[in-house]
């Protein structure tokens, strides 16, 4: 900490390991394969921490990320993004060296895949269970059938099953809403399994968001779980009631550069280029970009939500504080900020440092 | 274009050169020194384009950025960020090899600077002219005097003048509001010049935001202009009435990966990790993350605001379109998106490609 002079993303390895272990055990308890999403950390070293717990299959969100982890020894990867047909040659190259699964949700991409796949590729059909971002609406079995027909044209392609991302749990207003979105998705997927498992006895069901993977207790009929964020968690997950503050493994350490007593504001070196710009609504109705931890007598104190990161410009952050805490924070101090969305914050930084001082490089951006 | 297979930030060099030339001429007309802010492009190659127009002095927003441009031949740099006293040793190292100016706004940092500056450093006092982010409120001459007293303790330090960033022009609701914020800032700075120029005859006034630098016509008493965004411009500036769409030099080219006719939505490969998350309010009151250009018969067509980038997750973007345009855009097409905030978008990408195909690397993130 004493060597930090500019915004630095600190990662608590012990907390990460606990988060991984908890999810691994949960998957074991429910007889699920855990195929964690690696887009949150994007780091080979953090990937190694998963290997200790027997994880050998992963999820990624881009060809670039698949290539990066493949080159770091991962050989069973699901590319959980609608197939980008412009990247077919790189996908074929990847499938030559590792077990690769891709996602389809439309006939156009299925035709290109069937026409161009030159190596064995597993195919999941992406099902929209209510998030309304991507996927085939669960009831549209006509579209499913026609895509399956196309897949049969190329013997390199294997239909692996149905996959969903219940992303609407991220905007749930209560844990009950998470339970109900999850259960609704579960029922929709099971209905599809009932319909298709005779023809495709090996087919599986894959679900994946961190909120439901963390707190739900019914995975009946599900084969695979693909959460990602849980390795770090963040304020968004805490706000959803999905994790404790003590489960959040990443914090941004930022130097204090100015104080403005008339506004009870502290200015930090730490802005949109460090945190990204996701927000939560604070208890006062304002936008919150992060919560504040200060050091006092060698102790770390999490300040209440009257003290919060309230504004970000490119390199500046503005912390609103109460008059009491205003006096305790000085120019030249380091404060810690718990980020709203750890995936985007880590992606911004491109590297992290463990609390033990180990440097963790993330994958290159291009 | 035909080689693009994933989100790619394209920069039109001709448009950049026009933007630079226009601002250079404006500065000449008003007898101002142009010290452009390089945080927008963060690229040595783009910096070279400024040199053609005689630019030799620049502004940056971090020590890291100062080091990067110093190592690329720039030897007169203003570090326009409140002095981060934790980086004093690097600041001293920089000041050993180039002409460096720093910003002060409080006594605490002034004391550290006076105590530790071991090479010649120019000092601007940051004045808050109404943006309420950083700076000494213009009327607080007591604080100004006490900082100037501290600076006198170290003969390496030279008071260079007063500097402001009229950042509230970015949230102006009309060009009139930009004019009035700018004029108000101008009067506040001139009042300070009147008060201090006898004691400091060499002192200057420096202003800097792109909105007022682009459209205002009164710079009486001002010595230096420090806009940055104008080199690229973006939708935010266009929305403010500060530039034409044709002045915007950067566009993100993104592959189309899915279509959902029931929602009139097009899904692109291009998300928060490419665009960052700044938004504008669209004509329908919704959040807009970018505007859409499609190619038709070798022609580029900017779609109206009924067609817009409406949602971003980590790697996905969702474009809302009218039924007519829905039919014209197909899976596997490339669409161009004009970003809301080019500084943050370019920062996200870490590189750009010119319309002529030249690769432009930006500064490293750490």
From TrEMBL, chains A, B:
Recorded hits in InterPro entries, A to Z, give: Ala_racemase_N, D-amino_acid_metab_enzyme, D-ser_dehydrat-like_dom, D-ser_dehydrat-like_sf, PLP-binding_barrel
Instruction: Give the residues annotated as coiled coil.
Output: none
MF terms from GO for this chain are: D-serine ammonia-lyase activity
Q: Which UniProt keywords apply?
A: Lyase
UniProt cross-references to SUPFAM superfamilies, sorted A to Z: PLP-binding barrel
Q: Which residues form the D-serine dehydratase-like domain?
A: 249-356
Output the GO biological process annotations, alphabetical, semicolon-separated. Answer: D-serine catabolic process
Member of which family?
Belongs to the DSD1 family.
The protein's matches in PANTHER family, at most eight in alphabetical order, are given as:
D-SERINE DEHYDRATASE, ZGC:162816-RELATED
Q: What is this protein called?
A: D-serine dehydratase-like domain-containing protein
* Native organism taxonomy: Bacteria, Pseudomonadati, Bacteroidota, Bacteroidia, Marinilabiliales
